[in-house]
Design brief:
Oligomer: single chain
Shape: globular
Strand content: 25-35%
Number of helices: 17
Distance between the termini: 90 Å
Length: 857
Amino acid sequence: MSKSILKVFIFITIVLCSSYSDAQPLKKEIDQSWKFKQWRLTNWYPAKVPGVVHLDLLANKIIEDPFYRLNERGLQWIDKEDWMYETHFDVDDEMYRKDNIVLDFKGLDNYADVYLNGDKILVADNMFREWKVDVKSKVKLKDNKLEVFFHSPIKTDLPKYDALPYQYRTGPDQAENGGIFDKRISIFARKAGYQYGWDWGPRFVTTGIWRPVYLEAWNELRIDNVFFHQKEVSSKKAVITTNVEVVADDNMKDAKVLVKDNATGKIVGEVNSDLQKGANQLSVTFAINNPKLWWCNGLGDPNLYEFKTEVQHNSIVLDNDIKKIGIRSMKMISEPDEFGRNLYLELNGVRVFSKGANYVPLDNFTPRITKEKYEQTILDAVNANMNMLRVWGGGIYEDDYFYELCDKYGIMVWQDFMFACSLYPSEGKFLENIKQEAIDNVKRLRNHASIALWAGNNEAREFWIAWGWKEHYEKIGYADKVWKQYTDLFEGVLPDVIKQYSPGTYYQSSSPYSDGSHDDKNGDRHYWGVWHGHKPTTEFNVVRSRFFSEYGFQSFPEYQSIKIFAPEPSDWNITSEVMMAHQRAGSYANPLIEEYLLNEYKKPKDFQSFIYMSQVLQGDAIKTAIEAHRRDMPYCMGTLFWQHNDCWPVASWSSRDYYGRWKAQHYFSREAYRDILVSPIANENVLDVYIVSDRLSATKGNFKLKVVNLEDNSVINEVSQAVSIPANNGKKHFSTDITSLLKGADKNKVFITVSFTDKQGVEYSNRYFLVPQKEVNFPEVNITRTIKPVAGGFEVVLHSNKLARAVFLSLDGIDNFFGNNYFDIIPGNSVALKVQTSLTQSQFEKQLKIISFKDAY
């Protein structure tokens, strides 16, 4: 190549690269130099954005830790104040030269006036919406002043409450704790309901720029949204239509839209089209042969494709968008059958038993949730063999990263719209506001493979039908008005948004939803007879549903967790002021845990023993429920216990406490959610053993049952037989008369162990007692241990001379993790587990405490 040709080539390359660079949209986060102040005062303090005022007050040492002891009570003044946030920013030359400049607020909580260089540019009134404002004519190169004035949500909404001739019924709105008497105003603001308090959470009504703020600039056009509509999916072929929303500054001839497999750079689809000034809807349809399908946890790999969508003109890329897509056929089936109306999920043509939990926000102050905490939360679901989380309707539409992790790890998401346990004034501007909220979030989330369905609300319909709300409003003459508002929202606006923006996605107007009240034959069910209804935990073996989308049982956090928020020895009583403040289900709730515990177990000897036994009790209760639901497959096709996590340190239904510590319930659920379950159950004088399999092919192996004497470990009876387990189903594999099985032994002096071992040598086991555990003669045990260093901590191997029930290991503090805990040790067997810790071996051996059930009496 001659020097002259080379120079021309270099010049053309530079010009093309410059043109490409100039064409691309630019984006800058406005996250520096923020400050805030209480509006009526003068002092400014540094602020963090994204953030909320409680965190800024805490960081500036104006308030103390809101979660510590009784501090919540002294912080209720914050939501009654107005707050101002302010920053200054520059715009670089390249961005300033762009034809279009927009400020994009991903989340403003909640009533906010926004000013840029002294001009009001936005009035916001919905925490869940994204707000974009054209600021091209107002932005400067240097020293732009951006101000956000937040009105107190309490002062804004109290007049709405006072102006009504009737009031809207609400969920656990803790107005009294907030100092506004019984004026439950949470339903007037489009904010997370749990901020106003719930029966597991405190009252912190937040204010702030809770999601990022961006300055965006572009020329000619930008891609506003891309939707991969999966029209036809099978293992042989996937047909996908990419719907691309393009906003153009002017008419444009012969623009080109391309969709590429970003891993290979291969163009999978393209289309040429003329663009009109303004919004344009373009479609590119393509097919993938033999696609790698996305599967949920336990059924296969959650395969993801990365597609890049480009809009070009004259071979110059003007904008692009990259998304990770899981190709799958996801259907929620609800149709009449011989029993009523079923409800189950069908993934890639396979009927799936949904196993998981309900999820609430990880913190009352969501901007401080780290990516690491999100990932650990999702991995804790994966590692407990879950395949579904339900994002409950009193929290938030979660961060994008939450759904990306669910896509990555194969966790299906039951997604509620953000309405819970209340009725709402859904008409006029308020209803239109909700419609835009729904559009924003459905469009944001619709490409995620993990989204299985949308539900309109949590329990609002149930409260109307079964809790006397309908009769209340009929009595005061407003039933027709209030019910119309309900149906306009949940049977009108929301399903219409789903139909238009996420076609093919299942929607149900409420959860639970059935053809009757508390119906076990139709749809999903929230069962609270155990706990709220004071029924014994054995009732879980009796109640039925086609899909249990809520049920639960309470416990306290682990003692080491309690010491963080309640460090004073005077706090260590279940009815102390601090322990009662960190229990939001009512003054009866802590005593109810004790009532259940004394009904099922013997009396614990001290506070620490009570805490430990409350966790075992909760674990036993939820294990009972999960096993019953899985035994009832395929009549029942889903079990989601309440709840996966906490938003603050509290006694609650969670299986992981606020600090991420696994409770006994989480360890027990991990076993109950394995792909094969061996489940014994006694019915009068008959013992039945079911084996349930989630595997997609039949499984053969060996079944064993032993009746063992608790005192001398002798085997009273033993059964062993080869069995074949059908695919994706469960059935009774063994049944026997208990009297003959025991051969004269006392029920309270034996335990039963059952197991199934498949052809690969993988064992699934379970234990069972024939009497309540308070009547079991648990023996004194001698547990021996061996400890050896391994990467990240130590391996501990335990042996016991007799059955050791619910063996619990602990260290000081919570900066450790036990790979297994609260487990039973069968005499003659050993249990090995890994402990993650930074302690030296001598420190570890000195600190390690090991107790079992008998030690707590």
